[in-house]
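Quick bug: Tyrosine-type recombinase/integrase output formatted oddly.
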Amino acid sequence: MNTDELQPITPERAKEMYLEARKHEVSQSTLDGYHYRLKHFIRWCNEVADIDNMNDLTGRKLQAFRTWRRDDGDLKPVTLEGNLDALRVFIRWCESIDAVHQGLHEKIIMPKLSKEDEQSESILELEEAEAVLEYLRQFEYATREHVIIEVLWHTGMRLGAFNSIDLGDYDSERETLEIRHRPETGTALKNGKEGERLVALSSTMCSALDAYIEHNRHDVRDDAGREPLLTSRYGRIAGSCIRDAVYKVTRPCYYTNQCPLGRDIDTCEGTHYDGYSKCPSSVSPHAIRRGSITHHLSEDVPEKVVSDRMNVGPDVLDKHYDKRTKEQKVEQRRGYLGNI
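Here's what came back:
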């Protein structure tokens, strides 16, 4: 398509039309995410590149934005990837309304991420956790996948700790799970004996666990002769099975039947069994732990309680797990200090 065949439109108007077009396709939180990520592109167009017509965009200019956004925000690779991924989807939509040249979105070069980059910032946000759990409670109640997400979200425990639990460690009447360090039979805790604790459960969680045990748990023993809580037909499930289950059900297309990135669900590699983790919107078990800890802190649960429940030191909690914004923290402090 020649430039003469494009329809002039300002970046601001293109963004408004895009958000309006997606309004009934995605959740409000997803729409807010689009707005936040794209506002930096609009700012660059207005303040740096002096672009008032989307028709003028080229691959070279998009590369200039990529460099500017990385440096302006001092962004980590995983955050830059999220920004550029949102921009690619937006530019592809702009192609559909003749605002930019066809194929322009393919000229956005995505950063290459290491495993450390991929895992460093990922977090299951509250709205996403609630949406996943609402779907599982309604359509897959008491399945192994439901129990995995329910327990990981509400307890914030590590994958290894969850997989170490035996049937006898669960007390339905007292509504507790006991976490024990048993290296001699194959389930060591990350922090050894220091990781042992009794975790309180809610009645909602216990109802799901009771139903899982009665209807879906395989009555088997592991190689050490123990009775695991989480089972396959052959014994205690592998940690990789828990991880795969988390990646599977946290894909937005799984619990909403929609893709926030605008991908074709029928052809996306993230919809295949061996590709669940390739979905940019799915998360790992550790991202659920990070989200759970942040949620507890946001609900004013004291840090000492969170530290003990999740078995994480206060210094590590603050540095690696607490993902509240500065604004959230100051407003919570204001709530405590307002009447002094």
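Actually, after a second look the formatting is fine. The first helix runs from residue 11 to 22. Closing.
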